Amino acid sequence: MEKTEDRTALGRSHCEHRAIWLALLVEEAEKRGLDTAFAHEAVRRCGAYHGLTKYAGKEDLEDFAKVLMNEDAKAVFEMERLPGEGLRIDFHYCPLVAAWKKLGVPAEKLPELCRIAMEGDRAIAEECGLTFTLGETIAEGAPVCQLLFE
Prior knowledge:
The chain is of the alpha+beta class. The chain has six helices and four strands. About 55% of the residues lie in helices and about 10% in strands.
């Protein structure tokens, strides 16, 4: 089995790759005078697909948490489950934001890219009959991303 550090680096690399695609697609659309509505909807559809497949039958919050917070995901995003009602998670690292910064995306564009990326999580939650609330985000300059599933 691979070392945890290698698996974490690989997972982050995959997330960064997807983040770069998203940023460049949005940038090219903006060059053509398009807004980002298409990206929100495309990522939402992707999340719905995963909600119906990867998360199928995970309407129970603890079953949902086991899939969302698998060991690899916890390491990649430095996830911390917080006590309290619902599934509260702080992400202490975001490979997407890291990739956007490496790409040279201006800081003021990071929150919009984050909102687009989070459409997938919203749709996954909806497909599982859960509500999703996004609190502070690293893209906005906070030290963590705060996610709540109920």
